Amino acid sequence: MARNKEQNEKMREERKQQIRSGALRQFATKGLFATKIKDIADAVGMAQGLVYHYYKSKDEIYVELIKNALNKMNEAVISLKEMSLPPHEKIRLAIEQLLKTIDTSDDFIQTCRLIAHATSSTAIPEEAKKLIQEKRDLPYQEVAKIMAQGQEEGTIIEADPNELAIVFWTSINGLAIYKATRQDSTAIPDARILINMFMERTGEKSCRV
Amino acid sequence: MARNKEQNEKMREERKQQIRSGALRQFATKGLFATKIKDIADAVGMAQGLVYHYYKSKDEIYVELIKNALNKMNEAVISLKEMSLPPHEKIRLAIEQLLKTIDTSDDFIQTCRLIAHATSSTAIPEEAKKLIQEKRDLPYQEVAKIMAQGQEEGTIIEADPNELAIVFWTSINGLAIYKATRQDSTAIPDARILINMFMERTGEKSCRV
DNA sequence: GTCTATATCCAGATAGAC
DNA sequence: GTCTATCTGGATATAGAC
Fold it and tell me: Which residues 176-195 on chain B approach chain A with CB closer than 8 angstroms?
C-alpha cells in the first residue's frame, strides 16, 4: 500500500512535469494569454479537461514555471559567485557559458523567453509579479559585486559597477531574445566582443582576450 | 461641401490617431491578447463599440502600429547612414542618442516594447509577421556596414561586422526592455561603456580582439 | 459620431461516465 | 486517470437608437 502510494505520487509528479514542459514552450512562444489550455493539453497529448486533474488553473501552471525559471537563474548566479576564480575570470567564464548555453540549449532559450514575456507584461498573475519583484535583482547585485572586486584588482574597467551589471545582463538577455526569434541557423556572436567590453586594458597585460 | 469633406477626413484621422496612441500603450504593456478592445476604448475615453467605427478589428490596429514602429526604426537608421561622419563617430552618436532616447522618451520605450512583444511571440496576425520579416533586418545590415567601414579605417575593433551589429542592437534592445520594466527612477548606464566595446584602442595598439 | 444593447463565439473550468 | 460533455463568463464584433 505504501509502495503504491509512493508510486502514485511519483507518477503524478512525472505527469505534472510533462505538463510544465509542454506549457513552458507554449508560454515562451506565445505568452500567457495567447496560450490556451487546449494548446498545452495538445502538446502533452492529453485531453483538455485532464490538465485540471493536475493543476487547478492556467495561472497556477504559469506561476510554477516562473518560479522555477527564476530559481534556476539565481542558482546559477550563486554558483558563479562561489567559484574560486579572480573576478575578471568569473565574468569571462560567465559570458562564455551563457552565450554557449544560448546557442545550444533550447530549454534555456525557452526559459529566457518566458521570463522576458513575464517581466515585460503587466498582464500576469499577481503571484508571478511578486516572485519577479523578489528575485530579479539578485543577478544584478551579484554581478555588480564581482565587477567591483575586479576594479579593485585593476582588471575590470572603471565605471559604476551597477551600470556594468546592467549592461552585462541586458546584453545577454537581448542576445537570448534575438536568438529565440530567429529559429534558423543564426550564430551567436563571438563571446570576446562582450568580454572585451568589461576588461581593463593595462599596458602589456592587455591582450588577454 | 469639399471643405466639409476635408475637415471630416482630418477629424477622422485625428480620432484614429488617438486610438492608435491609446492602443500602443496597451499593447506595449500587455501584449496583443491580454489587451481588450475595452482597454483601448477606455484609454481613449470612448465607448467600446465606437472603436469599430474607426478600425474593423483589433488586429487591424495592431498591424498598423507594428508598421509604424518598424518604419520609424528604419527611417532612423537610414538617416544615420546618410550622415557625413566617420564610421566610429556614427556608432558613438547612435549609442548616445539611443540611450538618451531610451532614458527620456516614453513613446520610444513603448515602441520598443511593442516590437519586442511582436518579435518574440508567434501569436500575432500573419500580416504583422510578414512586416517584421521584411523590415527587421535593415538596421542590422546598415550597422554592419558602418562597422566594416570603421574597421577599414582602423577605428572599430576587428571582429565579424555582422556579429558586431548583432551585439550593438541586442544590447540596445536589452536596455530598452530593462528600462521599460522598471518604471521607477532607474538610470540608464553611461553610454561610454557600450561605445567602448566597439572602439579600437589605437594608443598602444595592444588589444585587438 | 456616439452610445447602449446584444448576437455570437470561444475558452476556462467543472461534472460525471468509463 | 482519462475522457466527453457542458456550464459559464467574458470578449469581439454588430445592430440599431439617438
Answer: 177-178, 180-181, 187, 189-190, 192-194
